[in-house]
Amino acid sequence: NILILDFGSQYTQLIARRVRELNIYCEIHPFNKLPENLSDFKAVILSGSPFSVRSEDAPHPDLSEIRGKKPLLAVCYGAQYLAHFDGGNVAPSNIREYGRAHLSYMKDEELFLEGIPSGSQVWMSHSDTIKELPTNGVLLASTADVTNAAYRIEGEETYAIQFHPEVYHSTHGKQLLENFLVKIAGVSQSWTPDNFVEMTVASLKEQVGSEKVVLGLSGGVDSTVAAVLLNEAIGDQLYCIFVNNGLLRKNEFENVLHQYEGMGLNVKGVDASARFLEALAGVEDPEQKRKIIGRVFIEVFDDESHLIEDAKWLGQGTIYPDVIESISVNGPSATIKSHHNVGGLPDFMKLKIVEPLRMLFKDEVRRVGATLGIDPELLGRHPFPGPGLAIRILGDITPEKVRITQEVDAIFINGLKEHGLYDKVWQAGAILLPVNSVGVMGDERTYEKCVALRAVESTDGMTADWVHLPYEFLQKISNEIINRVKGVNRVVYDISSKPPATIEWE
Ligand code: XMP
Fold this sequence. Notes:
Blueprint: E1 2-6, H1 12-21, E2 26-30, E3 43-46, E4 72-75, H2 77-84, E5 89-102, E6 121-132, E7 137-141, E8 150-153, E9 158-161, H3 173-184, H4 193-208, E10 212-217, H5 221-234, E11 238-244, H6 252-262, E12 267-271, H7 273-280, H8 286-306, E13 311-315, E14 352-354, H9 362-371, H10 376-379, H11 399-418, E15 427-441, E16 444-457, E17 465-466, H12 471-484, E18 488-493
Parallel strand pairs: 1-2, 1-3, 3-4, 4-9, 10-11, 10-13, 11-12, 13-14, 16-18
Antiparallel strand pairs: 5-6, 7-8, 8-9, 15-16, 16-17
Helix pairs in contact: 4-5, 4-9, 5-9, 7-8, 11-12
This protein binds xanthosine-5'-monophosphate.
Pathway: Purine metabolism; GMP biosynthesis; GMP from XMP (L-Gln route): step 1/1
Binding site for ATP: 218-224
Subunit structure: Homodimer.
């Protein structure tokens, strides 16, 4: 187990993901809350930070429990922190050092730099620079602009680097992490999906015993993998509920339900479409729609779970990015959209929570899913928002609008699949706009709906860019939509990036 102390860098999660890619388990903890079981961690990595070490409100934790006692790798701010408080000197650099640089002056015999050729590209992102190394510092590498790009401390297993090994642009970054963790700290690379499944199934058996677990399936990757893991562990003690809110993709409810049954899951499909659509009738405000959907979902789920006598646990597909305590640099962030499914279900359900995926990143969830034999197509599905088509139908929702949006969406998504484009896109869908426009079909004037298509690339949904889909493809899809979907006479393609736009229109 590796400890990553977070000083608030935007790259901290990336460090964790790189370490996990080496099949090494790690956890992120905020710098001001050292975990109590410190002895369980074999090595420590200090992250970067948006702060300057010289600033008074910058993170200045006491590392006496760690320094010299465990192998330590300090990245960027971490490297400056070690220098600043231990006889070195950190000062503003004349130029802001940002972007690609190349390592030189390597001490070839160093284990730390083994397999990393001189000239290797690294990624810099800092405005302070280390002018003088700390006491007992030994210089290992420099770049053209940064003399003290990598150093170690004599007599300790402490290493420090000014650049970011975790970003893709540092071409030997993963090698460097492996050198530190495997060669220097002697950590074993046993964090594999197979081992995870084996360990998790065993601990779920112990945790849940002979009690019953209720779990809400959404058709998405996380809840599915969580269910299959629980199913491996406790079989028929698992009761899955899959709710149709009437705002799913075309035929999704039937198809996915069928797939779940095929996987041997004990699942009940509940068609509550009418209940959701009634509650939503006439409501135009997006946040209001989200709240209503959240509330009705809880009601339906509660009714259903009461039918399962004596259930003691609520299973959830929560994953690691939702669990990591984030360090707030700019104060609490404003609510842009209230995602109803963050935070789980309210207390009144009074069930104990079991979350088999809470320590996994999304890519690890997919790898675990593959190990469990889940259909690759299901594992590769685009994300789909909890409120579904409700936030893609701008304004109020009617059954007719749901039908139009489903038809258009199905043509678009199937088209992406048929043209081999689906896996190149992170998320895609159709948006029904609350405007009519004039068209002409045959000799007739039409006055019908306009739909927008949206396809984005992203890694986590936080930032996104529109995908440059081929014109021929857009042409074909547009024709197909207008010819086949009654009520639509115009198709547009959304070419906005996030920020400043968002992925969904509501
Ligand atoms: P935005 O529109 O904020 O979307 O750029 C980012 C990602 O979040 C999804 N999204 C939601 N997911 N409940 C959800 O479960 C919601 O209310 C919600 N709103 C947006 C969106 O589909 C994208 O993947």
